[in-house]
Amino acid sequence: MGSILTEQRERSIDASQWASGNQIERDLVLTDADFARIRELIYQRAGIVLAEHKREMVYSRLAKRLRHHNMTRFTDYLVRLERQPEAKEWEAFTNALTTNLTAFFREAHHFPLLAEHIRNKPGPVTIWCSAASTGEEPYSLAMTLLETLGPKAAQSKVIATDIDTDALSKARMGIYPLEQVRKLDEARVKRFFQKGTGQQQGLARIRPEVSELVEFLPLNLLAPQWPVKGPFDAVFCRNIMIYFDKETQAKILKRFAPLMKPEGLLFAGHSENFSYISDAFKLRGQTVYTRA
């Protein structure tokens, strides 16, 4: 999920595109009513709040779905969606409107804090990454388990969930551009990645010792039932709450608390503050929370 800085950048880009329509292909009809309905549907389905300036993003991302179905009007696409509430297309609709911005060891200060928290745990460690995206974050957590616990890490687990099934498919593959992997320190690259050769040159694959610690599951944080069971030593919910309104944030935080161990830690994104949203958690520091 993106940060406030990314949001501001997207706002600037969207505004400039809107001002100069010739930069965007406009072979499809998106009315004001269509855009309003899309905003309502994605909020109902995934809790995502789409701002007014996201109109161009919505057009460009959903246009692929209309062309796939040989449609020219967003109105027809939305009517088809709403007539088939259980259709597979809902998954494609949600995937299209989900933002995936992530990196290995993003917000790096959290990982030493996690290592300190789990270092002397007597039993297996279980961590929930609730916005796994394309896998960089849960694999970073698995690497932290291996670096901190050594052989005992094999008994531990990272449960990685996301609403975007396309992103999860990429995450399960565990294959990334080598340029992205080279941003890590050399020791981690050698220990945790396999460099591709031949047709795979320029790519790197997560080593099995890392991927075996991670279980990927589709999960909508708005769903009445979650396919995860605690208690968790830590929950990572970073840079996703910014896409929800405060009411939705409070509901999710309330559901997190019973799934965590009494001393469990909740990790938030650098632009997120839960202190005034829920009384279920209290701030420990550096966007890390403990159960109240």
From TrEMBL:
<feature type="binding site">
    <location>
        <position position="106"/>
    </location>
    <ligand>
        <name>S-adenosyl-L-methionine</name>
    </ligand>
</feature>
<dbReference type="Pfam" id="PF01739">
    <property type="entry name" value="CheR"/>
</dbReference>
<feature type="domain" description="CheR-type methyltransferase">
    <location>
        <begin position="23"/>
        <end position="292"/>
    </location>
</feature>
<dbReference type="InterPro" id="IPR000780">
    <property type="entry name" value="CheR_MeTrfase"/>
</dbReference>
<feature type="binding site">
    <location>
        <position position="162"/>
    </location>
    <ligand>
        <name>S-adenosyl-L-methionine</name>
    </ligand>
</feature>
<keyword id="KW-0489">Methyltransferase</keyword>
<dbReference type="InterPro" id="IPR022642">
    <property type="entry name" value="CheR_C"/>
</dbReference>
<feature type="binding site">
    <location>
        <begin position="238"/>
        <end position="239"/>
    </location>
    <ligand>
        <name>S-adenosyl-L-methionine</name>
    </ligand>
</feature>
<feature type="binding site">
    <location>
        <begin position="220"/>
        <end position="221"/>
    </location>
    <ligand>
        <name>S-adenosyl-L-methionine</name>
    </ligand>
</feature>
<protein>
    <recommendedName>
        <fullName>Chemotaxis protein methyltransferase</fullName>
        <ecNumber>2.1.1.80</ecNumber>
    </recommendedName>
</protein>
<dbReference type="InterPro" id="IPR029063">
    <property type="entry name" value="SAM-dependent_MTases_sf"/>
</dbReference>
<keyword id="KW-0949">S-adenosyl-L-methionine</keyword>
<dbReference type="GO" id="GO:0032259">
    <property type="term" value="P:methylation"/>
</dbReference>
<feature type="binding site">
    <location>
        <position position="100"/>
    </location>
    <ligand>
        <name>S-adenosyl-L-methionine</name>
    </ligand>
</feature>
<dbReference type="Pfam" id="PF03705">
    <property type="entry name" value="CheR_N"/>
</dbReference>
<dbReference type="GO" id="GO:0008983">
    <property type="term" value="F:protein-glutamate O-methyltransferase activity"/>
</dbReference>
<keyword id="KW-0808">Transferase</keyword>
<dbReference type="InterPro" id="IPR036804">
    <property type="entry name" value="CheR_N_sf"/>
</dbReference>
<dbReference type="InterPro" id="IPR022641">
    <property type="entry name" value="CheR_N"/>
</dbReference>
<dbReference type="InterPro" id="IPR026024">
    <property type="entry name" value="Chemotaxis_MeTrfase_CheR"/>
</dbReference>
<dbReference type="InterPro" id="IPR050903">
    <property type="entry name" value="Bact_Chemotaxis_MeTrfase"/>
</dbReference>
<feature type="binding site">
    <location>
        <position position="102"/>
    </location>
    <ligand>
        <name>S-adenosyl-L-methionine</name>
    </ligand>
</feature>
<feature type="binding site">
    <location>
        <position position="137"/>
    </location>
    <ligand>
        <name>S-adenosyl-L-methionine</name>
    </ligand>
</feature>
<comment type="function">
    <text>Methylation of the membrane-bound methyl-accepting chemotaxis proteins (MCP) to form gamma-glutamyl methyl ester residues in MCP.</text>
</comment>
